[in-house]
Every structure is written in structure tokens, then in C-alpha cells.
Design a protein that fits this description.
By secondary structure, the chain is of the alpha/beta class. 41% of the residues lie in helices and 15% in strands. It is globular.
């Protein structure tokens, strides 16, 4: 029997309004104040129309507005629901944190103990930090030179370089520079939750591309290209959440397909950067419009909101032009800090040590999971297919382990959980694996 998803009476009670704008505003207010939690199912159009005494067309228009803002989504048989992470600051603390005594394998943050410190570099900079006026901001030539050397060493083609306030900032600016609301964007499925949310907020239409251990599949990309996508976003290594790595052979195959669609914008997110053992195999240059975006947050710390970007002349010029009407530029203090970190031999050693620790932790869990079809050939996460995400996440929390439900990373791919191993002590891997295997077996028995 098919599972029926029904909104609660409390859900319907928080929605009001006589116009599309009023209904949309009431839903937004309920999400903001905690009256509607992430994932809450909204009433069907005709049901809500009858409750409010308005036409179904009015409710449908309100839902269109909310979908356009990225607040709600249509989830097939699950109906229309509030997105798992709506783009709205909430006044209440409904977000489920990790309670004391529970091991956090859900957040995805790097291990603070493996991050290089900034203090001595900032002290050094403070002794000779030139003032920057409005006319003198922008990417520092020294930073662009160092970034260009790093891109060239990894096979990224020559292009124009710039700096953005992190990976997602660079991706957003590139998408806005080329696309308009309603355009179709090929995204990895499973894929980075922040990117899926961004696509929704920008009013773009995601087109899922299946991902195996070697990255986006050839057939999946071909289908997306044939459907008329305007852009493709790929993570070449340490893919979040599956840990996929685009191999040389897969990259060549994907490039051959992309070369038939020269107008497609190709964006590559290299968020792991120096923490990845694998050498990247870029798709950059297979089309006329492209950007290769490398963040510094994972190797050096989430508070270092800087990413270096290589791309074609037009794309990078548009990114920089758009920045002038907003933030203007990435702080030159942060840029100078990046230069210091990149030039420091001790910091390089710390990053290499962190890279090895992350790989050891990820592999320890994969080995402990044994025959379970877990994925994670690179990066910081292990992706474990499950029959029921909700019961698995809840059960593991009872066992003392917080993991992330796969729903926020999926479009049409099967259920799974994401286990982040960034802070996992390898000695704890057998305990985590035992709990996962036991809970997985229990879920299967209940379904039978």
C-alpha cells in the first residue's frame, strides 16, 4: 500500500489570507516563527482553497510564489512541503542539534584540531598592513599569481582569475551571470544540499544527474544535456555526500559529450582542494563558458570565506562586475592571509597531515561496514543506502551517533544516510558500523 502523506490540522491552522500574496506571506511567517517546521506537509491546493474560501487558482498562485522563493517544494506522492532548509532565518530553535553525549557525524565541518592557526600570520600582517580605500579593492595580483600556479599544476586551462567569498558565492555569481529564473541546471544526484537549495532560491529548475564512484554518469549527463539544460555543476573530487571522484577516463567521456553543447555553462566545485589525495581531472574548457572554483574553507577553516576562481573571460568579467554592485570585493586582509598561509612551509605540512587523517578516518569506517554497499572513495563522507532514512537516523541517535538523512541531498535517487567521518576517531569506527548494520537489518525485517 502506498504511504499517504497528510498535513496536520495544526499546519492548516497557521495558514491564512484572501489573496495569493496574503497566503504566501502567512506561510512565510509561519516558517520564520516556527509554526511550520522544515519538511511540514502543506494542504493540497483544493483543500486549502475550501478552508480559506478562495479559488484554487489563488492558492496555486501562492504556492508558485513560495516555490519561486525556495521556501516549499513539490515532492511527488509526499505532496507539497516546506523545504528541509528554507532560505529564511528562524526566530525559534527548532533545528535539531546534537545533544551532549552523542557523537556528531552529521555536521560535515572539518576537524578544528586539524586546522592551521591564523594568529601568528595575522600578527605578522598587522605590522605592515597597508590601508585599502574603495578604489583600491579587488583581487590582489600576488594571490592571483599563486592561484594561477596551483590551477595550472592541476590541469585547469588558462583563463581569467578572480576571488569570491567562498565556493557557494562563486557558484551563485556564475549562475546569475549566465542564467535566468526558469532555466534548467544539471546537478549531481545525490548532491551538495547547499547547491540544491541555491538552485531553488534562484528560481532555477534542477535536472538530476546520477552519480557513481567515478562522478556523474555518462548516460545521466547525456540525458540532462538532451533535456535542454543551460548549466552543469560538478564536484570533481570529495563529492558531497557520496565521496565520488571523477576519474581521468570518466572526465574524458564527459568532456566528449559536453563538446557537443558548447553553449553550456560548466561549473566545477573543488571544495576539498589540498585535502584531496586525488589529482583532479577538470572538465573546464570543454565548453565556451566555464568556471573552476576552489574554496579555502575545508583546508584552512570555515571562517576563511575565500575561493579562487578560474574561468573564461566573459564569465569571470561578469562575476567581478556583479560584485561591484554588492560586496565590491573580498577583503584584502583575508586575501593577504591566504598568501601567508600558502607560502608558509609549516602550514603546508599541517594541511598534508590533515589530508592523511581524513583519508584514514573515512577508510576506517568503510572497512568496518564490510559488505554493506557504502560509498566514499574520497573526501569526508560515507554514503550508506538504507531502506528508511527516518528510522535509521532516529535509531542511530538512540545509539549515540548523529548522522544526516539523505533526503536533503537527493532529488530522485534512493534513500540513504550521510555519515561524516571528518571528526571520527578510527577506533570508534567498529562501534558506528555495528550500530548501522544492526539498525539496517532491523529495518529490512520490519519491511518484510
Amino acid at each position: 500500500m502506498a504511504v499517504q502523506y497528510q498535513p496536520s490540522a495544526e499546519t492548516a491552522a497557521v495558514i491564512s489570507g484572501a489573496t495569493a500574496a496574503g497566503i504566501a506571506a502567512s506561510v512565510e511567517a509561519a516558517v520564520r516563527t516556527g509554526g511550520l517546521d522544515p519538511g511540514a506537509v502543506l494542504p493540497p491546493v483544493r483543500t486549502l482553497a475550501a478552508t480559506l474560501g478562495v479559488s484554487p487558482a489563488t492558492v496555486a498562485a501562492a504556492y508558485r510564489v513560495l516555490r519561486g522563493r525556495g521556501l516549499i517544494e513539490t515532492a511527488g506522492r509526499a505532496g507539497t512541503r516546506v523545504r528541509a532548509r528554507p532560505p529564511l532565518a528562524r526566530r525559534t530553535g527548532h533545528a535539531l542539534g546534537v545533544p551532549e553525549g552523542v557523537v556528531d557525524l552529521a555536521s560535515g565541518a572539518p576537524d578544528a584540531d586539524l586546522l592551521p592557526g591564523f594568529a601568528r600570520h595575522l600578527i605578522k600582517l598587522s605590522r605592515n598592513l597597508p590601508p585599502t580605500n574603495y578604489g583600491a579593492g579587488g583581487p590582489l595580483p600576488q594571490l592571483l599569481h599563486l592561484a594561477g600556479e596551483r590551477f595550472a599544476a592541476d590541469g585547469v586551462p588558462d583563463g581569467r582569475l578572480t576571488v569570491t567569498g567562498g565556493a557557494l558565492d562563486g557558484i551563485e555569481r556564475a549562475l546569475v551571470a549566465h542564467l535566468r529564473p526558469g532555466d534548467r541546471v544539471a546537478v549531481e544526484d545525490p548532491g551538495w544540499a547547499n547547491l540544491l537549495d541555491l538552485v531553488a532560491v534562484l528560481g532555477l529548475t534542477p535536472v538530476p544527474v546520477p552519480v557513481d564512484d567515478e562522478g556523474p554518469t555518462e548516460d545521466g549527463l547525456s540525458a540532462a544535456l538532451s533535456s535542454g539544460v543551460a548549466a552543469l555543476v560538478v564536484t570533481g573530487r570529495a563529492q558531497n555526500p557520496t565521496g565520488a571522484f571523477v576519474t581521468r577516463g570518466r572526465a574524458l567521456a564527459l568532456r566528449r559529450r559536453l563538446m557537443r553543447y558548447r553553449s553550456i555553462l560548466v561549473l566545477e566545485d573543488d571544495h576539498a582542494a589540498e585535502l584531496a589525495h586525488e589529482r583532479p581531472h577538470p572538465l573546464a574548457g570543454a565548453t565556451d563558458s566555464w568556471a573552476y572554483i576552489r574554496s579555502l574553507s575545508k583546508p584552512y577553516g570555515p571562517d576563511l570565506r575565500v575561493a579562487t576562481v578560474a574561468g573564461d573571460e566573459t564569465t569571470v568579467a561578469r562575476i567581478e562586475g556583479r560584485m561591484r554592485f554588492g560586496t565590491g570585493w573580498v577583503s584584502t586582509v583575508l586575501q593577504r592571509l591566504v598568501i601567508e598561509l600558502w607560502r608558509d612551509p609549516e602550514t603546508k605540512g599541517l594541511v598534508r597531515r590533515a589530508r592523511d587523517h581524513y583519508a584514514e578516518r573515512r577508510q576506517a569506517l568503510r572497512d568496518a561496514l564490510g559488505g554493506l554497499p557504502a560509498r566514499g572513495v574520497s573526501g569526508f563522507n560515507v554514503w550508506v543506502p538504507v531502506a528508511d532514512e527516518t528510522s535509521m537516523v532516529a535509531g542511530l541517535r538512540e545509539d549515540g551517533f548523529a548522522v544526516a538523512p539523505g533526503a536533503m541531498y537527493r532529488l530522485v535517487s534512493p534513500p540513504a544516510i550521510r555519515i561524516t567521518t571528518a571528526t571520527l576517531d578510527p577506533r570508534d569506527a567498529p562501534r558506528v558500523a555495528e550500530a548501522v548494520l544492526r539498525r539496517a537489518a532491523g529495518t529490512v525485517r520490519r519491511q518484510v
